[in-house]
């Protein structure tokens, strides 16, 4: 079963605009991670945010985490055509066997 | 290049057959994970091994099995294949356990069952 749910399922914006993707999850987590996947390729780790962190930056990426709302957001600023990909959030729960469980992903298209 | 190597890259086989997917983790990584990605089910966690021992199990069918060998490479065996098993199978690895460690994914093995 999926732990995370991304919103929106698909997003299309113009190059240069900012893209925001959201992720909601159900159970308490140890950390939340964002991954990127180009079509038919492997997943690339973007950023990890721990449950005691609220915000993290990496280059043009900004991730926030609100554990009270069980939600996270990924912001990509000044988007580029090369950012076109699917973006997944994944969570590591603190209960039971610890697994990295992925959401369904957001398909981001950057139009030049 | 993540450093995780998967073979074969593409595989076409008939229903009822058995296939083996192979994974070499990044040098130094002790954990290996297997995921299945399909259009209808998304990315599903199958199983994790750490230093040769099974550590976590997900939605892995009984027809599927995996193991991690002493040299840390791993194999995923899929038997009695059905059309619905057609998917992209990913292997991933990390230095330690899943908590707090970056997990690196291979490029995947495309399995088509006809």
Number of discrete helical segments of chain A: 0
Largest sheet of chain A: 6 strands, mixed
Strand pairing plus helix content of chain B: what structural class? mainly beta
Instruction: Briefly note the structural class of the backbone of chain A.
Output: mainly beta
From the alpha carbons, calculate the radius of gyration of chain B and give it in angstroms. 13 Å
Order of helices and strands of chain B: EEEEEEEEEEE
Task: Give the mean pLDDT of chain A.
Answer: 91
What does the overall shape of chain B look like? globular
Shape of chain A: globular
Instruction: Please bin the fraction of helical residues of chain B.
Output: under 10%
Structure description:
The complex is a heterodimer of chains A (112) and B (114). Chain A has no helices and eleven strands. Chain A has strands spanning 4-7, 10-14, 19-25, 29-37, 43-50, 55-58, 61-66, 71-76, 85-93, 100-102, 106-111. In chain A, strands 2, 4, 5, 9, 10 and 11 form a six-stranded mixed sheet that branches. Chain A is globular, with a radius of gyration of 13 Å. Chain B is an all-beta fold and 114 residues long. In chain B, the strands form two sheets. In chain B, strands 2, 4, 5, 6, 9, 10 and 11 form a seven-stranded mixed sheet that branches. In chain B, strands 1-3-8-7 form a four-stranded antiparallel sheet, with no helix packed on it. In chain B, strand 4 (31-38) and strand 5 form a beta hairpin. Chain B is globular, with a radius of gyration of 13 Å. At the A-B interface, strand 4, strand 5 and strand 10 of A face strand 5, strand 6, strand 9 and strand 10 of B.
Q: Quick gist of this model?
A:
The complex is a heterodimer of chains A (112) and B (114). The termini of chain A are far apart. Chain A is an all-beta fold and 112 residues long.
Break the fold down into its secondary structure elements and pairings.
The complex is a heterodimer of chains A (112) and B (114).
Chain A lengths: L3 E4 L2 E5 L4 E7 L3 E9 L5 E8 L4 E4 L2 E6 L4 E6 L8 E9 L6 E3 L3 E6 L1
Parallel strand pairs in A: 2-11
Antiparallel strand pairs in A: 1-3, 3-8, 4-5, 4-9, 6-7, 7-8, 9-10, 9-11
Chain B lengths: L4 E3 L2 E4 L5 E6 L6 E8 L3 E9 L2 E5 L6 E5 L5 E5 L8 E8 L9 E2 L3 E5 L1
